[in-house]
């Protein structure tokens, strides 16, 4: 009654016999592991465990329960359509009716221009878009101010470069002039002792003359 491409939720064998066989086979393996110290299952033990599980599952009431549970027989469309295995995911269903959330932001995705801010506001609610618009306008004003300041800085740098190019070169001292100044200084130092000796000789002559005058005055008084 069910094609191979149908959901396993509508397959009577998947919902009846196979579930019981898997549970019974698991129990047989647990018993075998306790006896063989968890040794690998060989072919003989596999056939024995599966035979016991098949005997527990292949019963009339279990076979009919699979058909009845899936709504295949007796035919029950409501049970088939409301089977939990074929119901859509509730979380995905709610996401379809909700406002799409914007992608998460990382440090590299931080908006740096007004255009990027406006792009971020596209998937937001109306009040949020209004706030983003205000932020974008503020960024536009700052961008304009920065552009004006950059232009001014460029002009000042050009003016400074022109002033540097217009300055005169630093005067290089003439070595000949320096030599002449040094010679004049040496000549001045040599002339200083001669002048001092002349001053001393004049002073001595003046003292001799004063002593002679005093002796003449004394002789006059005695006579």
TrEMBL record:
Where are the residues of the annotated region Disordered? 96-130
Please indicate if the UniProt record lists Coiled coil as a keyword.
yes
Its keywords, alphabetically, are: Coiled coil
Residue spans making up a coiled coil are 139-166
This chain's protein is named: DDE-1 domain-containing protein
Q: Does the keyword Transmembrane helix apply?
A: no
Q: Which InterPro entries match?
A: DDE_SF_endonuclease_dom
**Pfam families found in the cross-reference section:** DDE_1 (PF03184)
Q: What's an example of a GO molecular-function annotation for this chain?
A: nucleic acid binding
The segment(s) forming the DDE-1 domain are 4-67
UniProt biased composition (Basic and acidic residues): 106-122
